[in-house]
Amino acid sequence: MSQVNPFHVAVPVHDLAECKTFYTELLDCKVGRESDHWIDLDLMGHQFVLHLDPSLDPKTVKQHCNPVNGKQVPVPHYGVILTLEHWKSLAEHLRQHKIDFIIEPYIRFEGQPGEQATMFFMDPAGNALEFKAFADFSQIFAK
Predict the structure, then answer these.
(1) 28-69: pLDDT as tens digits
(2) Pfam families of this UniProt entry (predicted)?
(3) Domains in the chain, CATH or no CATH each
(4) Which of 114, 118, 137, 143 is nearest to 1 (CA)?
(5) I need a surface site. Which of 28, 78, 105, 108 has the fewest CB within 10 A?
(6) Residue 25's CB: how many other CB atoms inside 10 A?
C-alpha cells in the first residue's frame, strides 16, 4: 500500500447546526473553518466538509443498496478505516448513544482474504457512514 494521505470529501446536509452537533459530539470531529453555508471538520485526520443544502429532506433521501456478504450496503457511503481497537471502542460508544445501525457491527468476510470489522449508520441528513477495521492492514486490498 502506498503512503496514505488525508482525503477531502464534501457532503450535503439539510441543517448545519444539527449535523455539526452529530459529528462533533458523536464522532469527536474538530471544527476548522466555517461559514453560514459550510463547515470544515477534522474527521480522524481527514478534511470532511458539510455543505448546506436547504432543499435536502432527509426523510425523502433515496438510498440505493448493493448486496455485499449477505447484507444490503448503502451506496454512496463514506467513512474511515480504523484500528480494530478503535473500531470496537467506536462501536460501543455508538451503542451507548443508541445509534440506529443500518448494518450492526460485525465481521465481514470472516476467515477469508480481506476479513474486516464493519458497521453502517446514517447522519441526520441521511448520509450513510461506514467505519471499518482490519486486524491486519495488509488485507485492505486482499483478493
Answers:
(1) 999 999 999 999 999 999 999 999 999 999 888 888 999 999
(2) Glyoxalase
(3) 8-54+64-139 (3.10.180.10)
(4) 137
(5) 28
(6) 10
